[in-house]
Amino acid sequence: MNKLVLASIISGLIGGIFWLIGDILIVGYDEYDIHDEKYFHIMDKNSGYTMFLEAKEKNLRYGAMCGQWSSPLLILAIYSVYHFMGRGIYAIIVSTFLLIGVCYSPLAHAVFYYTARISQMRYHLYKNGYSMEDKFLKNLDLGHKKMVYSSWLPAITFTGIAWVLFALGLFLVPSKLPKIFVLLNPTCLSVIIGLISKKKTKIRHLIRGATFNIATVIYSVSALIAYLNNPF
Predict the structure, then answer these.
(1) Per-residue model confidence (pLDDT) at position 115
(2) pTM
(3) Positive or negative CA dihedral for 220, 226, 229, 232?
(4) Which of 7, 62, 144, 179 is spaced 20 to 30 A from 224 at the CA atom?
């Protein structure tokens, strides 16, 4: 048994758990925790600034920091992916995409702290009679949205591509990892979990907020079991 590979898988599992906790703290809320239809009409309910209006600042802050503090664990986890993909050129390509995605992810995760805080600030100003058409507020919104998209989209794009390549690699390169990992990789699992979360339950908001990192934890546990049963 390669102890480095084992340590890498465990690092990914621990990192995934930290990110899962971070997701629950930062976005694991009922999206519309205050139902103010007049405000929703003014702001556009789907604008992003009508969500998480009662989220606690401490929860948001620790949720954001969980991602930053545990990112080195996810970087260490890439070694096991490199190993599973056969340690060749294809493995380097997959690992590179994954590394870029992991490097972008802490900012993409933390930006939702500011989304929530700006939402709360806007609602406070609205309740105190300030106009939501204020030019400064509109510029603040525009800059923030650019920040969200410029950090979040690259993170999910590179990470998503990496795991799709990982799934294809199970057929393209000599890998002893079971083919079931075509379904058990985080990208595919996220789609499955996303479909399940459409069903209305009391924990739906937790699942929707933490979809990818639930998938990451499931993948890491599955990879650990697979490797312990058949070290290679």
Answers:
(1) 87
(2) 0.89
(3) negative
(4) 62
